[in-house]
Design brief:
Layout (H helix, E strand, L loop, with lengths): L1 H4 L21 H17 L4 H15 L1
Protein name: Rrf2 family transcriptional regulator
Organism: Thermodesulfovibrio obliviosus
InterPro entries: Tscrpt_reg_Rrf2 (IPR000944), WH-like_DNA-bd_sf (IPR036388), WH_DNA-bd_sf (IPR036390)
């Protein structure tokens, strides 16, 4: 996924190029950061082959 889409930042404060002025005092940032880590772990398990196979199954089901 990363090779297709590039680095993932689910909300602006997780984007290292944009950042946030309140990052040091924001509890919500910590929650998003943890969720982002979990989502990245999951997405790292998905291959291009998986995406292609999923697409083929979806197309076959709709045909």
């Amino acid at each position: 996924m990363k090779k297709l889409e590039g680095p993932l930042a689910f909300i602006p404060c997780l984007n290292p190029k944009k950042g946030c002025l309140r990052i040091d005092v924001c509890v919500i940032h910590l929650i998003w950061e943890k969720l982002g880590e979990r989502m990245k772990e999951f997405l790292n398990t998905i291959t291009l082959k998986d995406i292609i196979e999923l697409n083929h199954r979806e197309v076959e089901m709709k045909a």
